[in-house]
Amino acid sequence: MADDVIFDISDLSLYYGKSRALANINMKISARSITAIIGPSGCGKSTFLKCLDRMNDLVPGVKVTGKVLFKGKNIYDRDVDVVELRKRVGMVFQKPNPFPMSVYDNVAYGPRVHGIKDKARLDEIVEKSLRQAALWDELKDRLRDSAMSLSGGQQQRLCIARCLAVEPEVLLMDEPCSALDPIATSKIEDLMQRLKERYTIVIVTHNMQQAARVSEKTAFFLMGELIEYGETRRLFEAPQDRRTEDYITGRFG
Ligand SMILES: Nc1ncnc2c1ncn2[C@@H]1O[C@H](COP(=O)(O)OP(=O)(O)OP(=O)(O)O)[C@@H](O)[C@H]1O
């Protein structure tokens, strides 16, 4: 359904200096669904993800060509406010990276930066965000504790809550479970299933079982190219490209 497309990417290429890390990517990402990005190390998964909120702008010598339409507007246009873009498109990283401050202050950080000062309003946002991240019951009596005292899985859900606090539309997740044990991983996966009713999620994962479990669509990247993209079940059960088949059956990667 065309009206469900939130990102429409065309002819996207990215160069680090002279070296091309992404080559002519064409891809449409559906709203309120989970899209998984898979592929061997160095194929450009993280680079691609970072193109969706212009995090690559921070790397010196980067050149991006092509278009990334977010709800119809090219985010690489000159008039785009990158701070506003990153509010709408949040990022969760591989290693949980809470700020060295209390649980409450971590979640209130973004809203405060965006000008919300009222204590009652902040309390409300913190509770709502922690509830959405399935952390409220665990942490409601520890709001003043340091975020660094939480377990790795709790820290990662706190980072998700911190993203949700500024009411984004998209969550980009770069291997969000790679530092977590299976129980914490399954909590994050459950959480993603609940969040996709309201948010668009794009997840980079090395774990093909995870891609198969959580996502509606999967994109397979190889050496900066998008080799195959489609419905997750179809891609894993009946890959159309030999290279996809080789990768998912473990023949290389
Ligand atoms: N800041 C950078 N400067 C120069 N080259 C970079 C930079 N970041 C990534 N690259 C190169 O771009 C290519 C793609 O890297 P990227 O991190 O996107 O791959 P990946 O698929 O996410 O890898 P992994 O699964 O190992 O995290 C690699 O060859 C990498 O060395």
TrEMBL record:
Query: Which CDD domains does the UniProt record give?
Result: ABC_PstB_phosphate_transporter (cd03260)
Query: PROSITE patterns, per this entry?
Result: ABC_TRANSPORTER_1 (PS00211), ABC_TRANSPORTER_2 (PS50893)
Give the chief site where it resides.
Answer: membrane
Listed A to Z, the keywords are: ATP-binding, Cell membrane, Hydrolase, Membrane, Nucleotide-binding, Phosphate transport, Translocase, Transport
Its membrane topology is listed as: Peripheral membrane protein
Which Enzyme Commission number(s) are on file for it?
Answer: 3.6.3.27
User: Subcellular localization, per the record?
Assistant: Cell inner membrane
A GO CC term?
Answer: plasma membrane
Q: Which GO terms describe its molecular function?
A: ATP binding; ATP hydrolysis activity; phosphate transmembrane transporter activity
Top EC class for this record: hydrolase
Has keyword Membrane? yes
Please state the gene responsible for encoding this protein: pstB
Q: Which domain of life is it from?
A: Archaea
Quote the protein name from its UniProt record: Phosphate ABC transporter ATP-binding protein, PhoT family
Q: Which Gene3D superfamilies match?
A: P-loop containing nucleotide triphosphate hydrolases
